Each structure stands twice: as C-alpha cells, then as structure tokens.
Amino acid sequence: MSRSSLWAQRTIFDVMKEMIRELVSMTEQEWGTYAFSRDPIHKRVSTDLRREMIQSANRCGREEAQKLQKRFGQQDITQLVAALGLNINREDSFGVDNFITFAQFHSPNSITLFMGNVTATQDLILEHDMGEMLQYVDVEQLLTAHEMFHFIEEETPTLYTRTTRIDLWGVGRLRYKSGLICLGEIAAMAFAAEMLHLNYSPYVFDVLLPWSKNEIQSRKLYQDILQFKNVKGEEKNG
C-alpha cells in the first residue's frame, strides 16, 4: 500500500473515531431533543414540557430494565429472550422493501433482526478499532434489548410511554389527544443502555448501523445530530 493510501486510510480512521467520540459524549437530554425533532408532532410540545418528557421517558426505560433484572437476576439478553417467551427471527438482509431497517417488534412476541446491518456494523467497529469506545457492545443484543422494551411496552398499558398524550386540537369541550412515537423510542434506548450497562446512548447506532449501505446519508445525519449537542438551555445531565 502506498504512503498516500496509508495516509488516506489513517485519516478515515481518525474521522470515524472523532465522530464516535462526539456521539458517545452526548447527554440524554441532547439525544432526547434529537429524537423529538423526528416526531411528526414535536412542534406541539413546549421546550419545558419536552425536557420533562425526555427525563420521564428515560426514567421509564431504566426502571423497566431494573424491574426485569430484579425479576430474573443478571441474565444476559439471550436468556431473557427465552424467559420472556420471545421469538427471534433473523433475516439475511438490510431491511424491508428497499428500506434500511435495523430490527422490528411484531405483536405479540416476535422480534425480527436484519442481520445485514448487524454484521456490517460489527465489521465497521472492528475495522476502525472502535470496540473500546463502544464498550465492546454486541450489536445483536443491543437491537434485541431495544425491541424487548417494545414488547414490555405493549404488555403494560399503564406505562408512561403508553399513557402520555398531548392535545392536538380542540373545539369547545372536545379534545383530540395523541401520543408521541419518540417517547417509546427514547425509553427503549434507555432500557437497552441499562440492560447492557452502557455509559452512552444507543442512539449512536443511528449513524453506525446504516453506514455500510449509505455512508453519505450517515455522514449527513451525523452533522444533523451535532446541531442538538450543547443546545443552549438544555440540561447537561440525564
């Protein structure tokens, strides 16, 4: 390999590591604000209420993980899948109908993992020597843990993410309320982080998982995410 090629490869490695350093340093509030920005009705929520909802959703996810650990002990994700009666389907693809998809929960108790993304992401982490930065996380277990929360969410109608609603419109005494998709996603990320003892948000994988199929889009998403880092008025602790 030529000296210029080695330099280019080293530069790419450095860029990747710098990106991950930026992402793993983001707080729950910053990631939560990013998650809210992707919700179709996020503009209906005030800044103060959004901050409160982010905190509550993260707490909900962590508490559900702690309940599960207390109930079954410190078992790994594979053992918990069996204990909860979940079925895992592994598809040798990157998604459905040309859409990149990481994993899906199907009611009542099935999880589909799209292994093309899992394998490519594990290879990417290894290639760029990012394992230590990401606490040597098992990507398949991470995705499974995330979808495991959605199973618990469906089984628990009293959960915060199920009961929280906001007013969309009203006429007289008539009010139309709606939930927010992002609350369940924020809680699922917190659940997965708690289950796998991660000190960063699994939202980092929003950038890493699609990288192999669409590097340009992943780079663009990374730049978009950075807009939510150190946002004025956001709290720095989760």
Overview of the molecule:
- This protein is of the alpha+beta class and 238 residues long.
- The protein has one domain.
- The protein has ten helices and seven strands.
- The chain has helices at residues 3-24, 28-37, 47-72, 77-83, 115-127, 139-155, 160-163, 181-195, 205-208, 215-226; strands at 87-91, 95-96, 99-100, 103-106, 110-114, 166-171, 174-178.
- The protein has a three-stranded mixed beta sheet with strand order 1-5-4.
- A hairpin with a 3-residue loop joins strand 4 and strand 5 (110-114).
- It starts with a helix and ends in a 12-residue tail after the last helix.
Main sheet attributes: strand count, strand direction, barrel closure: 3 strands, mixed
Assembly form of the protein: single chain
Number of helices: 10
Spatial order of strands in the largest sheet: 1-5-4
Regions with pLDDT < 50 over 5+ consecutive residues? 1-9, 232-238
Q: Cα-atom Rg, whole angstroms?
A: 19 Å
The average pLDDT value, as a whole number, equals 89
Strand content: 5-15%
Main attributes?
238 residues, 3-stranded mixed sheet, 10 helices
Q: Topology, please?
A:
Elements: H1 3-24, H2 28-37, H3 47-72, H4 77-83, E1 87-91, E2 95-96, E3 99-100, E4 103-106, E5 110-114, H5 115-127, H6 139-155, H7 160-163, E6 166-171, E7 174-178, H8 181-195, H9 205-208, H10 215-226
Parallel strand pairs: 1-5
Antiparallel strand pairs: 2-3, 4-5, 6-7
